[in-house]
Design brief:
Number of domains: 1
Largest sheet: 9 strands, parallel
Number of helices: 8
CATH superfamily: Glycoside hydrolase/deacetylase
Strand content: 15-25%
Order of helices and strands: HHEHEHEHEEEEEEHEHEH
Helix content: 25-40%
Number of strands: 11
Bound molecules: zinc ion
Structural class: alpha/beta
Radius of gyration: 18 Å
Distance between the termini: 38 Å
Amino acid sequence: MSDDQTFAALRQELDRWRSAGRTARLWLRDDDAVEVTDALEQLLDTTRQATVPLTLAVIPAFTGEALVARLAREDHVLVAVHGWSHENHAGPDEKKQELGSHRHADVVLAQLRNGLDRLRLLHGPKLVPMLVPPWNRISAELVPRLEEQGFEVLSVFGRMRDNSPIRLLNTHVDVVNARGQRGDRPHADLVRELVGELRTRFAGGEDPCARERPAPVDEPIGILTHHLVHGASERAFLARLFEETVDHSAVSWMSATDLVGGLALPQGRVE
Ligand SMILES: [Zn+2]
């Protein structure tokens, strides 16, 4: 199937939003930035040309001035805190986690505060006080204590739940990873997932076909990328996605700051 046919379902859904006078809020989060690489340059180019705001989740322990100098030239980029060192502390039979319950909570939280302080010192106003847990996983006991460390928002993967102790700005479509797959995800699958997210919001959270919990109507839709492993397929998907959406009057690509600061986010809960 050509990309044109693949994206027809998205066009159709967005036209429905336009006819109803509604606007879908999208945001883009990219993970694992540390230094300036060709892959990062590519993502910066694509997003700048498309005028799509980008939130880069940066690993505090290993980053430094080179990334600061490079990002200073990009008005459309914000920085979030991607754990501390992105090291796995889980056992060989567990899912990978840096922020799990394998270490004392005080130790983990102290590292997260260091990460936030370090990135704020480096990136100044570009820093959003947002924690992006490595592998999108964080122990439930840590979440109520994130605000004490200076975080204002948490970003993981999946639809938000009610009653979170901290605001959530989540991602919902992972361009690179699927269960058992890393890279080269079929574009039709990605479009289907995005259209699914749009449909549940359009319907006010009701989606009889969805196995996932309903999305709050006003939850922004987060697109998640990992620039370091993007190949031709991911680059083509993003280029096409931006082409289809940036100028569409039913879509608003928003920065994390605008979403966190300017507009009330629904309260959610993580598992
Ligand atoms: Zn990561």
